[in-house]
């Protein structure tokens, strides 16, 4: 899988703090054998987020884009709105699964506004901004990501696991 990791943080984009969430996601992705094709750190600005998502989906044809940050209640948290503006279809089960798993650890999971959606053949997932939360959420959905990518690429073998033997 070719992935992109987009860190959305005013402070990290200004160099005021390190991008620990993006680094944590990159470490996990590399250990999973995924190709990290793009990384960037940008401020919490809807237009910049949208532009990166569109470029990485349309121009770079990434399989999965992981965003980290900007999913909370702060007035500057606009990642879900930027994502919703560029996706063609939603993938609510992924966001629901991440929130449900996080809820076992903290009631603050209810405050996540993260979304998941599809633009063309690219899956876009919003993850929390904290390194721990980002990694935990990615680990929840990681087992289904290769199959999701197969389905998006219209791989003829992708549907094989959906039918019972002999049926």
Note down, in words, how this protein is organized.
By secondary structure, this protein is α/β, with parallel strands linked by helices. The chain has a single domain, classed as 3-Layer(aba) Sandwich (Molybdenum Cofactor Biosythetic Enzyme, Chain A). It is 41% helix and 19% strand. The protein contains seven helices and six strands; from the N terminus they run E-H-H-E-H-E-H-E-H-E-E-H-H. The protein has a six-stranded mixed β-sheet, with helices on both faces. A hairpin with a 2-residue loop joins strand 5 and strand 6 (122-127). The chain is globular.
Strand and helix map with partners:
Layout: E1 2-8, H1 10-13, H2 20-31, E2 35-42, H3 46-59, E3 64-68, H4 79-86, E4 89-90, H5 92-103, E5 116-119, E6 122-127, H6 131-141, H7 145-152
Parallel strand pairs: 1-2, 1-3, 3-6
Antiparallel strand pairs: 4-5, 5-6
Helix pairs in contact: 2-6, 3-4, 5-6
């Amino acid at each position: 899988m070719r992935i992109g990791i987009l860190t959305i943080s005013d402070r990290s984009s200004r160099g005021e703090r390190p991008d620990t969430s993006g680094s944590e996601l990159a470490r996990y992705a590399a250990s999973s054998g995924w190709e990290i094709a793009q990384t960037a750190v940008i401020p919490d600005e809807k237009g910049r987020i949208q532009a990166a998502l569109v470029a990485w989906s349309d121009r770079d044809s990434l399989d999965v884009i992981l965003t980290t940050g900007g999913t909370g209640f702060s007035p500057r948290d606009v990642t879900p709105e930027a994502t919703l503006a560029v996706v063609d279809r939603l993938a609510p089960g992924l966001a629901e699964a991440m929130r449900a798993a996080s809820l076992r650890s903290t009631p603050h999971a209810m405050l996540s506004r993260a979304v998941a959606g599809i633009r063309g053949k690219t899956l876009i997932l919003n993850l929390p901004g904290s390194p721990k939360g980002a990694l935990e959420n990615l680990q929840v959905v990681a087992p289904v990501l290769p199959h999701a990518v197969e389905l998006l690429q219209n791989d003829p073998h992708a549907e094989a696991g959906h039918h019972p033997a002999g049926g």
